[in-house]
Amino acid sequence: MPRFNGIPVNNAGSGKAPRFKGIPVAPKTMVVQPNMMGVPAIGPLLAAIGYDGQAHEAPAGYEPSSVPILDPISTFANSTLNAIPIVGPTLKSAAERLDELTYGEAPGTRTKINAADAEQYKNAKMAGDFAGPTIALAPLGATALGGRLLGMTGGLASRVGLGGLSGALISGADAKARGQSNEDALRQVEFGAAGGVVLPILGAGFRAITRGVTGNTFDPAEKALARALDSDQIPVAEVQQRLDALGPDAVLADLGPNLQRQAGALASLPGEAQRIVRDALVNRANGTNSRIIGDVASTLGEAPVPSQIAAGIEENMRALAPQYRAAFENARAVDTTPIAQGLEADIVNMRGPAQQALRQVRSMLDIHGSPGILDPHPGALFETRQAIDGLLANEANPKVIGVLTDARRQIDTMLGEAVPGLKAVDARFEELARQREALQFGQQALESGRTAVRPVELQQQVAQGAVPERGMGPSAVPFRLSQGARAEIDRIIGTTTNDLNALKTALKGDGSWNRDRLVTLFGADRADRLLHVLERERTYADTAQIVTRNSETAARTAAQKEFETITPGDTMRATATGMVASALQRLATAGAGLRRSATNTAVARSLMSQQVPQGTLEAVARALAARAQPELLAPALVPLIANRASGW
């Protein structure tokens, strides 16, 4: 029901007498509240805003609402709304006017009621005063930009500057929003600015004291590495794992762009740190060729020499000559009349190159020097088959290839019947011929351009090559294909190792074809290991490029400021006092330079490390954890403190 202290209210039907300022209706009022202190979660929250569940006397002139438990809750809500910086008074007035319209109250009624409740429930009002700024500013401070603008994150200088600025602006604007005079608003601006400057300094000092007491102190090198790892989003626990995955020569600087820029900054400054960084990267670059060759050999095996393999295959083919002669010792005469008649019939109907080819084959069936008389010797028929093979090897006309192939098939069938054991020797010869062709084809398997073999075509070649011919098996055709490809990879590496882009293009390509073809030839595991070697070397080269050459100049300049030594200013006058002061200044500057040089050297050693010491990683992890701690005295509290001090 509507109620207030000092202004009559329309209490018709409420059973309550009106109250007037200074004329209490009842000298004392017992406020009886239902006891909810034992309710989990709710009880402690109610206790925090002044609710105790006990009957107590209220001040003269105060009358509780019909539901007393809502009074402290309403007080807390109204105070929270009012305490929101800048817009709080407007929101509070709008809420009070809405209540008055809802209950049909006169303007200003709800303001009087809320003021009486605030006086009765001071704890609830105080809790709301603190909750309002927190609820309003916490979401802004949780964002990267908002936290920086409020002075909650960033370096100490940034927190001091932006904290003072935000404290001044918010405090001054809030004071004017609450109707304060220009003079009072100016005092609030000064108070807010001072608080925004002092609080980050106090917070930094508090953290430094805490770390000193607990032993969690960090040297500049650890903090520098922590900043870079944090910027590159690399968890400390994964550092060594990522180094091991990249390769045995990987260094910490390879893991991210900010680490690379730190190394670049150190490499551009004279001193021990520069020597450490440059020597490490130069020595690694000098070993690129031998490293790639060794890793590829361990992955795919030693590279064969195609000409030597081909010579061995041809030697084995020549070694079959005695077996052919032995087979013909038991051969019988042949009657090639059916073949000759078929060729003659086709010659009549054929025209052009196909007709000429058939005439040539038909003449080979005759006894030399006796045209028209067929040669019955199986050796002559065997030589005819060999001659046809020679014609086919250089023929491109599909019609000619068709008629020659059909003639060879007929001759081959007749030889198989007339010469026992010939087909077994033929099978061995054909297997060797297929291996020779596979060796040549394997050297073309990774080519690009219009003549590039598609992955599915290569898969078919391997599958068909594995099928033994004439019962001879298992076939070595797939092995010869992989040998040819391995030899080609060796040739590519030998001619393009110094150009990693060319090597990557030749072996990996721009799409997925080369990986698919490598998987077909060598298996998925070895193919991926080979491509990883290329990616690793590309990473190594990128690190050297960023660190030692004029790339990313702006980023390097920004990082260099973190490491550059302090140079003394020669501003002291040539007096006895000035000389002493100058000597002291130079001594202090020299000490600072030595400390900075030591820090740079420590960072350089860590960045060029292949095995980062566990102690260093643990220290960096602690430094990162310290950076992640929220500000204990955030400048976002300045408006709250300033306006609380003003009494609102």
Report the biggest beta sheet as strand number plus sense, adding barrel if it closes.
Answer: 2 strands, antiparallel
**Structural class given helices, strands, pairing?**
mainly alpha
The residue fraction in helices comes out at 55-70%
* Low-confidence parts: 1-32, 566-574, 587-594, 639-648
Mass-distribution shape: elongated
Q: In oligomeric terms, what are we looking at?
A: single chain
Mean pLDDT: 77
**Spatial order of the strands in the main sheet?**
1-2
End-to-end separation in angstroms reads 27 Å
Query: Number of DSSP helices?
Result: 29
What radius of gyration results from the CA coordinates?
Answer: 47 Å
Percent of residues in beta strands: under 5%
Number of strands: 4
Throw out a few tags for this protein.
disordered N terminus; mainly alpha; elongated; two-stranded antiparallel sheet; 4 strands; 648 residues
Description:
- Helices cover 67% and strands 2% of the residues.
- The protein is mainly alpha-helical.
- Among the domains are: 114 residues, no CATH class; 87 residues, no CATH class; 232 residues, no CATH class.
- A hairpin with a 2-residue loop joins β3 and β4.
- α11 crosses α12.
- The N terminus and C terminus are likely disordered.
How is the topology of this model organized?
Blueprint: E1 29-31, H1 42-48, E2 56-58, H2 70-83, H3 88-103, H4 109-120, H5 122-142, H6 144-149, H7 156-177, H8 182-214, H9 220-231, H10 239-246, H11 257-267, H12 272-286, H13 288-300, H14 306-318, H15 321-328, H16 337-349, H17 353-364, E3 366-367, E4 370-374, H18 378-393, H19 398-418, H20 422-442, H21 455-465, H22 477-496, H23 500-507, H24 513-522, H25 524-548, H26 553-560, H27 576-607, H28 614-628, H29 638-646
Antiparallel strand pairs: 1-2, 3-4
